[in-house]
Every structure is written in C-alpha cells, then in structure tokens.
Amino acid sequence: MKAFVLDRYGNNDGVRSGEIPEPELGSGDVLVQIHAASVNPLDLRIREGKLKPILPYGLPLVLGNDLAGVVVKVGPDARRFQPGDEVYARPDQGRIGAFAQLIAMNEDDVAVKPRELTMEEAASVPLVGLTAWQALIEKANLQAGQKVLIHAGSGGVGTFAIQLAKHLGATVATTTSTANVEWVQRLGADIVIDYKKEDFAAILQDYDVVVDTLGGETLEKSLRVLKPGGKVISVSGPPDREFAKEAGLNWILQQVMCLLSFRIRRKAKRDKVTYSFLFMKSSGDQLRKLASIIDSGAIRPVVDQVFPFESTKEALAYVEQGRAKGKVVVKVR
C-alpha cells in the first residue's frame, strides 16, 4: 500500500512516499481503509524527533495521528464494528500511521463517524476533539457559568475547544490575531483578545480555567488571570510527573519531568492555582460522545484546507507555517 514514511528525524527531507506492507490485524483490531487524515503540530514534533524521550518510535515510521475511513476487516475478537462501517479514530500513540491507505487499530480507539460530517471533516476531529474533551471535561471539570480562557482560538485545538466550552455553558475568552477576531467571535467566543494589540493578562481576571496551547511566556502570564483554586492545563508546557507516571515512563524520566515542570509548578503554587500537562489519549468512547454532540449541531469542525494524498509533504509544510485557521486535511481516497 502507499504511505508517507519518516526515514530520519529532522525536516520534510526525511519524509518520503513509498510502498509498504499492509498492516497486520490483531485479534481485537479493525482494519480501516483511510479516506482522509488530518495533519497536526504533533506530526511535526514527531518528525523533528522532539518527542523521542517519551515516544521512542523505531524508524521507518508512518506519520499521521487521526483519520476517517471505512472498516474493511475485523479481528476474531472485535465485536463493535463490521465491514462497511464508516468510522473515525485517533489510533493509540504506539500505532499511529494515518498517512497511508490502510491502518489497523484496536476497536476501543475507534468510533462511528458523525453522520453529519464528510470524511474530510470527520478526519479533522479526533486529535483536537479528544484534546479539548480531556482538557475541559476530564482535567478541568468545566461547569456551566465558569470562565475559561482558550489560547490561540483560531488554531485546531482552539476552534474546537471554544465550541465545546460554549456547549458546556461556560463563558469563553480567547486570544487570536487581528485578522481572526470576528471569525472566532462567530465560533462562540464571548471575549476576544487581539494579542497583537492587547495583553490578555492585563484584561482578564478571576478565570476558573486556562487551556494553553502556546507554552513559554504565554503559559506563565496565564497564571495571573486565574482565581485562587483555578487550573491551567497545557498541551505545550513542560511535562510533569503525573504525565510521566500515566505514560509508564521509568523513574529517571519521571524525575526529569518533575524537574522540567518545577519552575511553572512553583509559580502556580505561589499564585494558589494548579498547573498540569496534557498529552491526549486515544478513546473511542469519548469520540462516540463527541459524535453525538457534533450531530446535534452544537459543534462544527473547521477545516482550513484539503490537500490530495500525494501532496502530504506540502500539507506538513503548510501546517509548519502556523497560519492555518482550524485543521489541515489530506484526502487519501
């Protein structure tokens, strides 16, 4: 089958199009013919080798972290799906490979595709949808009437998280560039901070939750907008010990993660708030719940651009520019 393969860490020069064997089907697996896959900043970080300590992939590796397609075969112990089912998924981090014509995944990581979405729209959802769900619902336990700041509201995670937070009944503030202010307001943001003209930390106060997708100085300033007991949840900040334990990393790496996050955790404690790092996990169950919300009309995925499969490297380069509004998708079939 055709696939885009990472042969060496670095830039796009290490990625090639090639023929590889079809994936082997485990007893509890489904084999999915991929119709569309989305491109995420996570693919770039894996390509660059930045996640080797926590994701020690062997090369060559097929990139691609979420997809939509049709089940073509099921393993002998798989019960939830049958050939012909239209599905979407974020494969387990050890079994990525959506930039290909076929993928085998455990059925627990797969859900029936939202019926209202095209394959390209559905492929844009799993990674950002699960990130938003696990940040806002699992970690933050966001409640109606609470206030949440979501950074980079025009990005993949931001566009989805704004809509999910509004569905949950929260007041939503977001940061974005001048060109996207009105656009994120249409997504449902109540307060929009133009980061080119305004300092969000000087405007916002007494927030319950911050979802940080930027890290660095933005993360540190985010502590100041929280009320005592508030939570900042970051997908870009330093990993913490809790993440290392959940990921099953060894004792040494747990200590490394503890040291990496020490400074921001100490600052958070001083401000009487909490910091936690989120590395999104696969969950077919959560994708089923998201599909129900999407089919109700409460959330609409935002797709910036669709590239043909043979232009997957160009899609990676486009995402690397950091200008996409919403998600970038590769049409495989």
Automatic annotation (TrEMBL):
Source superkingdom: Bacteria
Keywords carried by this UniProt record: Oxidoreductase
SMART domains, per the entry: PKS_ER
Cited PROSITE patterns: QOR_ZETA_CRYSTAL
Identification of the protein by name: Putative oxidoreductase
Keyword Kinase set for record: no
Domain Enoyl reductase (ER) as annotated: residue spans: 10-330
InterPro entries referenced in this protein's UniProt entry, alphabetically: ADH-like_N, ER, GroES-like_sf, NAD(P)-bd_dom_sf, Quin_OxRdtase/zeta-crystal_CS, YIM1/Zinc_Alcohol_DH_Fams
GO MF terms, alphabetically ordered: oxidoreductase activity; zinc ion binding
PANTHER family documented for this protein: ALCOHOL DEHYDROGENASE RELATED, RETICULON-4-INTERACTING PROTEIN 1, MITOCHONDRIAL
